[in-house]
Amino acid sequence: MPKKRFHAFFSGRVQGVGFRFTAENIAESLKINGWVKNLDDGRVEVVAEGQEKNLENFLEQLKTEFVSYIKDVDVDWQEPVEGLKGFGIKF
């Protein structure tokens, strides 16, 4: 199965609600590499790499978990870039 990568921005009330820690837990359970980070403008940025099906599952779980907080999601699908190991929270 092909590997993919996405770069996403979640907007709405997505900071201070456990978004980053939940993203980290879901990503680790799906064997996804990448990171999640709060931005100064109130959005949350996510870079994730892994099997395409797992990435789609990851996005759906985040949208479901934070349905009342997410106003918009901007996802840019890309080719994978080697070098990401594990999934972490950037500060």
Please give the structural blueprint.
Layout: E1 3-12, H1 19-29, E2 33-38, E3 44-51, H2 52-65, E4 70-78, E5 87-90
Taking Cα atoms only, what radius of gyration do you get, to the nearest Å?
A: 12 Å
In the predicted model, the low-confidence regions spanning at least 5 consecutive residues are none
Tell me the distance between the termini: 32 Å
Q: Which fold name fills CATH's third level, the topology?
A: Alpha-Beta Plaits
- Strand fraction band? 35-45%
The helix content, as a percent range, equals 25-40%
The chain-level structural class is alpha+beta
In CATH's first tier, which class applies?
Alpha Beta
- The dominant shape is globular
Strand order of the largest sheet: 4-1-3-2-5
Count of alpha/pi helices: 2
The CATH architecture comes to: 2-Layer Sandwich
Could you give the order of the helices and strands?
Answer: EHEEHEE
Description:
The chain is α+β, with helices and mostly antiparallel strands. The chain has a single domain, classed as Alpha-Beta Plaits (2-Layer Sandwich), CATH 3.30.70.100. The protein has 2 helices and 5 strands. The chain has a 5-stranded mixed sheet with strand order 4-1-3-2-5. A hairpin with a 5-residue loop joins β2 and β3. α1 runs antiparallel to α2.
Descriptive labels:
91 residues, 5-stranded mixed sheet, 2 helices, 41% strand, Alpha-Beta Plaits, alpha+beta
